[in-house]
Structures are given as C-alpha cells and as structure tokens.
Write a structure and sequence with these properties.
The complex is a heterodimer.
Chain A lengths: L8 H4 L1 H19 L5 H12 L4 H26 L8 H12 L3 H35 L3 H13 L1 H4 L4 H16 L1 E2 L6 E2 L13 H17 L19 H23 L5 H15 L13 H24 L5 H12 L6 H6 L1 H24 L1 H5 L6 H20 L2 H19 L5 H23 L4 H10 L1 H15 L3 H20 L1
Antiparallel strand pairs in A: 1-2
Helix pairs in contact in A: 2-4, 2-16, 3-4, 3-14, 4-5, 4-6, 4-13, 4-14, 4-16, 5-6, 5-13, 6-11, 6-13, 6-16, 7-20, 7-22, 9-20, 10-18, 10-19, 11-12, 11-13, 12-13, 18-19, 21-22
Chain B lengths: L30 H23 L9 H23 L8 H5 L2 H20 L1 H16 L4 H22 L11 H13 L3
Classes of the chains: A mainly alpha, B mainly alpha.
Chain lengths: ~500, ~190
C-alpha cells in the first residue's frame, strides 16, 4: 500500500509535474518532425539526465515518450509524412482528410482517441501487468516469426491497389532490412563488398526518403494549386462522435496493449494491426478506407498510444523492452542503480507506481497540448508549396543526417526518395516497404531460432506449430489473412452474398 | 469525383499510400520499363542472396534473404506480365505526367546538395539550395526567395544545431566558433 502512494508523488511535487509537461510538449513536436525519432530524443536525454535524481529523469522521459508517439500523427495528417513509424497507418486516412480541408477535425479526433488509448494502456499496465507479461513470456520464437509474417501480410489492408505489388513491396522491405552483417554469424549480406554497406541501411533514412522526399517530389506536380484552407472551427470532437467510435476504440486499444506488451513489437505494429482490424469490422464507413475514413484514424491512434502502457509491462516485470524507447529506458534505470525485471517489482514497487503516475499525467498533458496547439500546426499546410517543398526536403536531409551523423544516410534517403516517387506513380504502396524493414530482423532472427530449436527439421517445425495452441491460432490467422486477400476469396464472398440475397428474396 | 476533394487523385500518383497511383485497366508511360527494372533487380538480388550461404542449412544467414528475393522475383514477374497485357494510356506522357522538368531539376538540386554538403558545409549549401529552390518554384523576386530562405534556414539551424545539438558538416563556415560565441553571449563571458 505504501508503494501505491508513489503514484501520487508526481501530483505533489510541482517540479516533477513541470518536467512531465515539458517532456510531453517537446515529445509532441519531436514526434511530429520526420526523422527526429522519440528513440533518438530519449537516448540523447539520458546523457543529460544521468546526474539527476531518478524521479525527475523518468518524468521527462515518460513525457517525451507519450507525447512523441502521439506527435507522429500531426505531420502524417498534415503532410502525409509520418513523424514516426507508429503514425504510418494514420497517414492513410488522415492525409486525405487534410486534403479536403478537414485537418482540424482529424487532429481533434486523433487527440481524443490517443488519450483514450493511452488511458486504457495505462489501466491495463496498472491492473494486469503480471498476467499480460506471463502471456508474452509464453511466446516461442516460431510465434514471433508468425507474428512478423502476419504483420507483413497486412499489406493487402494497407493498399487498395494490387496485392502482387503490395507483396513485392513487403518483400523488398525485408531484403532492405537484411542488408549489412548478419548479427548471428557476422556474414555479409547484400553488401556488394562495399564497406559502407556493412552497417546496414538505417530504416529512418528509408522512411524519410520514401515518405518525405517522394512526397515533396509529388507535390511538385501541384505547385500552381492554391493551398487548402483547413477548417478548424471544431477541434474538440462532439460527444456523439466520440461515443460512436468508442466501441472500435476499445477493441483497438486492446490490440494496442497486447501488441505493445510483446517484446520487440511496438506502437508501429499495433497501429497497423488495429487499422487492419478496423477495416475488417467496419461494415459501412462514412468514407472508404484510404479516402478519409474516421475509423482509419481512430484505430491506429488508440492502438499506438495503448501500446505505450503495454510496452512498459514486459519492461517493468521482466526487464525485456517492449520497444526501442523502453529499451533505452531500461538503460536509464540501470544508470540510476535500478534493476528492471521481476526483482524491481519486489524490491522497488514504488518505482512501478511512480511510472504509472507519470504516464497518467503525461496522457493528460498530451490531451491538453494536442487540443490547444492545432491552429499553429495547421498553418504549416497553408504555407505556399513553393516554400513548403524545399523546406520538407531540407528537414528530410537534416533528419536523415541526424540519425547517425552520416552522409551515407542522406544518400540512402535521396535514393529511396526518387525510387519511392516512381513506386507511387506506378501503384506500388510504400507502407509495406517500411513495415518489411521494421519486421525484417524479427522475422529473420526468430525463423532461425525456431528452426535451430527443431534441429533443422521442417517436419518438426510444423509439428510444433500444429501442437501448440498459440502457434496454431497464429498460423491459421496467417493463412486466413492471406487467403482473404486473394481473388478466389472475393469471388467466394460475392457468391455467398448473392446466394444469401437470393434466399432472402425468396423468403 | 467528389467536388469537395482537393486532392490530386486524377493524377493517379499515389497521394496516399492507401490509394496508390496507376490504373487498373491501362498502363502509364514508363510503367512497363519500371516493372522490368524491378524484375531484373530482383533476379540479381536473388543471385546475391544465394551467394550468402546457399542451401547449406535452413538456419543459414542467406535463407530469409533468398526467400524474400524469390518472392520479389515472382511478384515482379507477375507485375511485368499484367502490366504488359494492359493497353498504354494515350492521354499521358512521361515528360508531362511522370517526369516533368520541374522534378528533374529538383532531383539534380537535391543530389547536388548531397554532394556539396560535406565539402562546403551545411549552412552555405542549405542557403543556396533554399534560395534556388524557392526562386525556381515561386515567380516572386530574388529578394523574396532570399529572405524566406535565410529566415527558414536560421530557424532550422537554431532548432537542430543549438537545441538538439545535431552536428551538421561545418565545411567552409567556422560553425563551432559561431556556436561558442552565441553561448558566450547568452552564458556571459568568464
């Protein structure tokens, strides 16, 4: 009970409250700038805060994390450039809304739903941390591999275009992710004997190039068009709107928490899976998905913020990071003499409750800053394209360089930018490429671990899948998702629908 | 098309990733060449992937690269065949709809920017890039382009260099001395 009182520490110490507020504010803006990742911001912060007390240091980092996950949606909606990978799915419907002049409405809904998702994530973290972490612990390498395949198969949901082009894009992403030295055997892969390729290709550079540079090049086709004035008269969504999307938000928050709690996955995968879920369960969206469906905003935004709470579960209870940011935060806790893992919950339960308190506060700050700062942000898109395009390119170059202070990343970014420009023209979706790059390592490592543990025997590997309930469910889901995207399924569905309509007509 | 829609769907250029460009029933200029390029590149990558570890073990470092490049090759082949079958769109040209002069100029500008960034430095290269790019796109005067470019550059430099301490190539500009002078100004001389 004494430990639980640590939950209120943040509310009784004004300087901690201020640090969470400053962190959240900075996080929203850092998250919104493509190339400036929250991971980078938190890792830079460690060097500034390691001489601080642990509570202020954690307060600032938690604020940046929560704000940053949300902030990525801003530029995704306004410029079609996701500030962070977790906002890729948000761009799919958010940007078409901004093109219609509805950026204010889109940002208002994403802010409220991010708050809702964040709240659910924290609630689950506080109430069910031990149970959820037990569940995540029971995942075998083959389950992680299946999860990665599942993620890549979402390409069909990500693009309305050709499934073949979507799969090509996903596979290309995995190949890009494999470039460099293999971490297990140190073998060179796709390096072409060039030393500069041995370190691999930064996925931030790929992301900025594909989304930032290609978008700027596409915008060149429309320089003469007047900027779209954004309708921002109603920022706070009505109670009716919130109530309408609440059931979906609850479902996608659950997806966010579960995916966030799985080590190695994070808000990006959670958002994509939630988007796919929304597409499947929404029978009649007001607008089609990909053209400004509100459900397409609600789902990823609740899920990626719910994943924040989820990511803390394995971090706090097992010492396994839920995502890149929590991996850095584990390092920060070590620097402060704490040992994240099961013993932390026993030895320092007050730390757990303090972090829960900081997350709750950051979530409220996010709502506050999100709803009050929209007008300034929407001005970005009202800038003339003649200024905006060169600035996007400049920011993309600085962002790509900032990742590793390397010009190589800038060249990669430019190359992928031009390549992405052609891909967009010819109907190859970009989202799956990024998804492939992110999931490449998860897929590769876990395939090899799984097959080694089965003594390189494919028969044993499949037997393992069929005899484990968890693996079997994942495997069947993979099969179903693949099959549901084929023309055969669409034909079957149409036939079933026709038969049912005929039966109803007869009755 | 929805009249209220201010986007550019009519260009089929993939304004959102969920609505990628291209047409279902016809092929855009250059689309077949792009698909063939992807097919050849996939074939080459598959050959490279085989060279990593061949079929020596299912857990070899080349297994996943081989699998993915094989998928790339198969899907690229299907894309070539389907693109080839579709009739060429006669209302579009490469020079007007795919690769207009404006895009070529910008690609040259950003490649030049990348090449000059290290030897010349971030500040002068960015200033030249921004002034040229804004002037190229905006019919207003050189003064306007220069003023907007320099104002934007100072803002970007302040945020990235001073607040986030991102180290950009200094090149010919004594940037470290400038930052130190700025810090002395605000921190007070000691």
């Amino acid at each position: 009970m004494d430990a639980f009182l640590a939950f209120f520490t943040i509310f009784t110490q004004p300087e901690l409250l201020l640090l969470v507020g400053v962190g959240t504010f900075a996080g929203v803006y850092i998250g919104a700038i493509p190339g400036l990742s929250v991971t980078m911001a938190v890792s830079i912060l460690i060097s500034f805060t390691f001489s601080w007390d642990v509570y202020p240091a954690i307060s600032l980092m938690v604020g940046i994390y929560m704000g940053g996950v949300y902030g990525g949606s801003r530029t995704a909606i306004l410029l079609n450039i996701p500030g962070a990978p977790s906002a890729i799915a948000t761009a799919l419907d958010g940007y078409p809304m901004a093109l219609r002049g509805e950026a204010g409405q889109a940002i208002g809904v994403t802010t409220v739903m991010s708050f809702f998702g964040g709240f659910i994530g924290i609630l689950v973290l506080a109430l069910a941390a031990p149970f959820v972490s037990d569940f995540a612990l029971s995942f075998q390498p083959r389950d992680y591999m299946l999860l990665a395949v599942l993620g890549i198969l979402l390409v069909g949901s990500l693009s309305q275009g050709s499934l073949v082009k979507g799969i090509f894009a996903g596979a290309l992403g995995i190949a890009i992710g494999a470039v460099g030295r293999d971490p297990l055997t140190f073998t060179e892969r796709f390096t072409f004997d060039l030393p500069v390729m041995q370190g691999g290709i930064s996925f931030i550079a790929v992301m900025i190039g594909m989304f930032g540079v290609s978008e700027a090049l596409l915008q060149l086709h429309h320089v003469g068009l007047p900027a779209v004035r954004q309708k921002i008269t109603r920022i706070v969504p009505s109670f009716g709107t919130v109530r309408k999307y609440l059931p979906l938000a609850l479902q996608t928050s659950s997806i966010g928490v579960i995916i966030g709690a799985l080590p190695g996955t994070g808000g990006d995968i959670a958002a994509l899976m939630a988007y796919d879920h929304a597409k499947r369960v929404t029978k009649k969206p007001a607008r089609p998905f990909g053209q400004g469906a509100m459900e397409g905003l609600v789902a990823p935004e609740t899920a990626n913020n719910a994943a924040v709470g989820g990511a803390f579960i394995p971090m706090m209870t097992l010492g396994i990071p839920g995502d890149a940011v929590t991996a850095i935060m584990i390092g920060a806790l070590f620097i402060h003499g704490l040992n994240p893992g099961p013993m932390l919950m026993i030895d320092k339960p007050d730390m757990f409750w303090f972090i829960v308190g900081a997350l709750v506060t950051a979530n409220f700050f996010m709502l506050l800053f999100g709803l009050t700062g929209i007008r300034i942000f929407t001005k970005i898109v009202e800038m003339p394209r003649s200024v905006l395009i060169p600035l996007i390119l400049l920011l993309s170059i600085v962002g790509a360089y900032a990742v590793n202070n390397s010009l190589t990343d800038v060249y990669w970014m430019l190359g992928f930018g031009v390549f992405g420009y052609f891909m967009r023209h010819y109907g190859y979706p970009l989202g799956p490429v990024i998804l492939g790059v992110i999931l490449s390592r998860l897929l590769d490592d876990n395939w090899r671990r799984a097959i080694i543990s089965e003594r390189e025997d494919l028969g044993r590997f499949f037997h393992g899948i069929l005899t484990s309930p968890l693996s079997l469910v994942l495997f069947l889901t993979v099969l179903f998702i693949f099959f549901s995207q084929t023309p055969l399924w669409h034909k079957l569905k149409a036939r079933l629908l026709r038969d049912r309509t005929a039966e109803e007509a007869e009755q | 098309m929805d009249e209220e829609f201010h986007g550019h769907g009519e260009h089929h250029d993939g304004s959102s990733d969920a609505t990628p460009g291209g047409y279902e029933d016809s092929r855009r200029p250059g689309e077949l060449a792009f698909a063939i390029f992807l097919l050849l590149a996939s074939g080459y990558l598959l050959k490279e992937a085989y060279g990593i570890s061949g079929f020596e073990a299912l857990s070899g470092p080349g297994v996943v690269p081989m699998g993915t490049t094989a998928v790339m090759l198969i899907t690229a082949l299907i894309a070539v065949l389907t693109t080839w079958r579709r009739p060429l769109l006669t209302t579009e040209t490469i020079a007007k709809d795919i690769l207009p002069l404006r895009v070529i100029v910008f690609v040259v500008l950003i490649v030049s920017y990348g090449l000059l960034l290290k030897p010349v430095g971030f500040l002068p290269t960015s200033a030249i890039f921004l002034i040229l790019a804004i002037k190229f796109l905006d019919p207003r005067s050189w003064l306007f382009a220069t003023a907007v470019a320099l104002f934007s550059l100072i803002l970007v430099w302040f945020v990235f260099r001073i607040i986030f301490t991102v180290l950009m190539p200094a090149g010919i500009v004594p940037e470290a001395e400038m930052v130190q002078a700025l810090r002395d100004l605000f921190g007070g001389a000691k």
